[in-house]
Amino acid sequence: MRVLIIDDQASLLDSMRFFLEQRKCKVYTALTGKEGLKTAFRERPSLVILDLKLPDMDGQIILKKLRNDMPATQVIIVTAFQDMENTINCIKLGAFDFIHKPIDINEIDSALNRFDKINRARTHQDPPQKQGVAAPSDGKTPYIVGKSQPMKEVFKKIAMVSDSKVTVLIQGESGTGKEVIARTIHYQGAWKNHPFMVVDCSTLVDTLTESQLFGYEKGAFTGADVTRKGTLELAGEGTIFFDEIGEMPLRLQSKLLRFLHEKEFIRVGGSKVLQSDARILAATNLDLAKMASNGRLRSDLFYRLRVVTIYVPPLRDRRSDISLLANYFLKKIGHKHQMPIKTITSGARQLLESYAWPGNVRELENSLIRAAVLTKSPVLTREDILNAISETGVDAVQEPSEKTLAEVEKEHILQVLKIKQGHLGKACRTLGISRPTLRKKLNQYGYK
Length: 448
Ligand SMILES: Nc1ncnc2c1ncn2[C@@H]1O[C@H](COP(=O)(O)OP(=O)(O)OP(=O)(O)O)[C@@H](O)[C@H]1O
Prior knowledge:
A 5-stranded parallel β-sheet has the order 2-1-3-4-5, with helices on both faces. Strands 7-8-11-6-12 form a 5-stranded parallel β-sheet.
């Protein structure tokens, strides 16, 4: 295989050359963008490894040129994790993969393995299609940190859907980052200057929801003294994100379905059919297929929603993201609380990487906030992290104890409630008990 590496760090070029030559690649190198393009057009490599930050040219311009003029050549971009917007733009522009800086040779190895595999499969296919062009960045996009293979797939899907109005269902456990993904789809997309509206289906009452969603006409019900627009109208050409879609009352499900089919709706108490061009994103941590089969969710709505599904794996299934996320959160905490950025010992890092994180990324972030705020020292130890986790976490890191079953049950219920930030509905789902049962138990513990 012929590989061209474009990077302004001579030492990195040397070590990559050494590594790639071991893999029997013919390697070309270039220290600048201009030199890189010249070499690419002369040598026609099958793969280019391209650093986005070059002294003379923007990496995205080089990528665009390579994808346009040499579509058979694939490009892996090298990026800093703070460059998430750029990374997504590069995927939109047709980058094959990305690896993070500082470069871990294992990441290159697995990217090359993927490239080999896909290249072999592609031999009999048509040349790759030209990809869409990215919208300019506006700085509002939230960061999504991740370098694990499942998160790379998530980034690719975000890039694929953000410039279209396709309905997307985001599935994953609580705290895995579903809302961040929804926001990123919106703010990376062509309609990012239009509103992003969130509807939390788990907190809405049936009748209230209807007027909130569809708006109402003056006089539609007692207290409706003026005509009001609902979320669908207010969103305009933007995005409506239905969080916890599995909680939507059945009656509203059919109205939402009509909206998804026809893009039409009527205000409560009105007769005029109104049009909306909003994009629908939905998220759930429930098994919607099961809900559809037992009648709790309309199956036609389920099929309509899952046109494109993004699955976000729990943090315990993508442990290679943990260290990166921890660094990111420690920086974020430092900036937010205006304190020096804390670091962690290798023991603490090992603990973070081995813990089960039942509350996923949210629990990791909250534990680090607690540890950073409560610890005076600039370096967080294993103990500091352990204390912070056991404040809210589930018992995954604790030693076996001699507690009674009732004590363990109480602790577990209170911990889950903390993780769910006091949200009874969410806690019930995690605990697998009904709301009345949870209330009864809380009463027994002395909580009203
Ligand atoms: N990959 C990620 N990179 C950076 N921050 C993340 C990532 N994933 C999650 N977070 C952060 O973790 C917290 C929880 O994320 P989010 O609210 O998106 O999860 P969720 O899956 O929608 O949760 P829920 O199902 O409980 O509503 C947020 O503060 C978010 O910013």
